[in-house]
Each structure stands twice: as C-alpha cells, then as structure tokens.
Specification:
Length: about 425
Amino acid sequence: MKKNPKFYLALVIFCLTGQIAWVVENMYFNVFIYKMFNASAEAISTMVAASAIAATVTTVLIGALSDKLGKRKIFICSGYILWGISIWSFSLLRMDVLSALFPAAASAAAVGVSATIILDCVMTFFGSSANDACFNAWLTDVTDETNRGRVEGINAMMPLVAILVVFGGFMSFDLNKWESWNLIFYIIGIAVILIGIAGFFLIREEPVKTEDNKSYFGNILYGFRPKVIKANPGLYMALAALALFNISIQIFMPYLILYYTETLGMDNYVLIFAPAIVLAATFTALYGKVYDTKGFQKAILPTVALLGAGYVVLFFFRSTVPVFLGSLIMMCGYLGTGAMLGALIRDCTPENKAGMFQGLRIVGQVLIPGVVGPAIGAAVLKNADTVVGDDGTISFIPNANIFLAALLALLTIAIVLIPLFRLLKSRKSR
C-alpha cells in the first residue's frame, strides 16, 4: 500500500506534536511538581498511575465509539484542540492562585500536587481520545503488512525527537521559576491546538466498516471476551510482551531527568544528550525496515539486547562519556523494541476492529506499566539520599538502582517472547 506525501506529513506532525505533549506530561510534569510543590517519589508514582488509568479507560471507551460510528478524523482533530486547551490550563496552577482558592488548606504545595494530578487526568482524557484511541486506530486502518514496519519506525522515533524538541526548546528556561512553566504550558498548548485545526485539512478519513448489530457496550467488551482471546493468541502475547517491556521503561523514566540533573549534576544534559537522541531516532526510523524484510523475531532480539546493555552501562558509570553512550544504547533499544512490538500488534489486529483493540493496547502500553513500573521505582528509591533546600524542604535524590531494577524487569519479557516466536514460526510453516 503506497502512501502519498500528504499522509507522511500528517503522520509526522501528529505523531511529533502528540509526543511533545506526552513528553511534557510524562517527564516534565514530574519535574514540575518536584520543583514547584516538593513532590515525593510516591506522589510522582501516584500521578503516573492515575494518568495511566485515565488513559486506559478513555482509550477503551473512545476507541470502541470510533469503531461504532466509523469515524476517526473528528475525534482526532477536536481531541487535539481540547488537549491543547487542557495543557494551557496548567498555567493556572500557581501558589498565589491556589492559596487564594483554598485559604483553609494547611499547605498550598500539597494542594498543588493534588490539583496537578487531577488536571493531568483531565488532560489525559483529551489526549488519549485523540492520540491513543483514534489516531492509532487510523494508522492501523491506512497501513498494511507492506509498510507497517516503516510507518511504525517513524511513529516510534517521535518520542525521542519530542524529547529533543522539548529539551532543546526549553533548555534556557529556569525551571525553578513559575514564569518559565507558564510559558512552557502556553507554547505547548497553542501548538497542539494549531495541529488539531490543521488536521481537518491533512487527515483523509478512511472508510471504517461498522457492525450495526453490535452494541456500543458490546464493542467495549469485545477485546476482553475469551473467544476473541482464543482466536487471536499472537495479538495477546504481543500485548503481554508490550506490558513487560513498558514496566521496565516506567521503572526509571519518571525519574530520568531528575537523575541527570540532581544525581549526576548535569545541568547541560540537553547539549550532552541531544546527539544521542538524534542518533537513536535515526536508528529507529531506519530499523523499521528490518521488521518488513526479516520478520519480528530477527528484528526484536537485537533491540531488547541494546536496551539491556544500556541499562548496564547507566548502572555502573557516572561520568559524561559513558553515560552518554549508555543513554544512546538505551534509547536505541527503547524505541526499537517499542516499534517492533507496535508493528506486530497492528499486524495481528483484526480488520475493521482497530478502535476496539486500542484500549487493550493501552492496557499493555500504559495502564499496567504506569501502575507497576513507577511503584517499583518508588520502592527502589524509598531509602534514597535526600537534600534539604534553602526553604527547608526535603527532596529525594534518585540513584542508579532504578536501572538495575529496570534490567531485571526487562528479563521477564523472555517468558512471553519464547512462546510467541514458536507461534509465529508455526503459522509461517503452514
């Protein structure tokens, strides 16, 4: 299935803009409540878990609805617009505003942490509706086995490109000041709104066959039915592998920026790691072709090995050069593994039911990892060193044990990959 330039333009800008918004949420919100409200590791873990639950419920409900209506475009475009508005709303989370609204509260900082978690869930609802549920279903609708590896390679590289854009764009901002955060929320919010508007002109609505005899609630429960699971073992094995992989990622990812800045003291980490991000993103975009030509098994094993090797380097070394190399290896393995699993999941998704299965994908990609991973990370950091700020507040200092825990979690993926390889091999031999 050959795609035109307009498709790739829509793919790139919607993937990139969506990932920029998710980077701000998944990595910068952690820094935001850490620096502005002195949040603990447990509070960060709670925020990630709450967002993961919101993302999953939203994707299940909206994905099934988009299948029932046979529409993707309206959900994508309007969702991006509302997503941008919700991001802008974080500019209202200031100490003076919170103190005025809740004068009886014992601590405005505690209110700030709670308000951030609640607004994060609201933002996640709009973002997951637009991106997780409908944009990803649309990508499945408009691709096939001849180009999914290539398309998923581009899709999977966007998280690192987004990190580069966000880190590079905001590297001169003083994140200890409210003014900097307000400007970040304004810029990202407006950008997401504009992309949502542009989508009305860029995205071509593909016809989706609807099943009128299926109720909406039947569509919601479709992917959880035993007979559906039995009929699609490869899909559910791939989703299980995705869950184990992302648990490993979520053990360290919420604390990664804090590890670079607070533990390693790398205030210029953006300049140090920008080349690593560019190289890893390029690797992922090119590596997607391996899936199309060599198949899943030969494509997934090298990327899992790279991810594990990156963890080992980051655990043992602290100086700039080896940390740069470890981060590069880890990023290549992270994006490459995600791309290969994503392509396999699209290949195994039943035709005309992409929306129904997006909720299941989010269970493996976000819900289980978002609850389990940060909880493991918080447990690992429970006795981490602390530092007392000028205002007397106490903050934790992340340590390298998060990478060791991530490595141990990654090893469990073999439990699923081994039978998955056997299943795929048996199907090919028929």
